[in-house]
């Protein structure tokens, strides 16, 4: 697993019984690396991703159906976000988002 994920786990799991030193040893990361990660601020790209993700959540909750990443990407572009389809898809996958496929309707006009 990437170190960032391990550091996030340490940050969430640290209690009186689970000290940071024990967690760092258990996850094979250094204490200095953890504290460096803790002090650093979000990069510009990470903060842009956070704001884009919040926008995508808002748009998908406003829709009566569950839109796919292409519709959400188009909505983001229309609202001034600079992003690619792949970036939108990656952000949605990271939060476990799944779109709903439309029902296939039987028209009854098929040839036999």
UniProtKB/TrEMBL annotation:
Coiled coil: none annotated. InterPro entries: HTH-like_dom, Transposase_IS3/IS150/IS904. This is IS3 family transposase. Residues 50-104 form the HTH-like domain. Pfam families: HTH_21. It comes from Pseudoalteromonas phenolica.
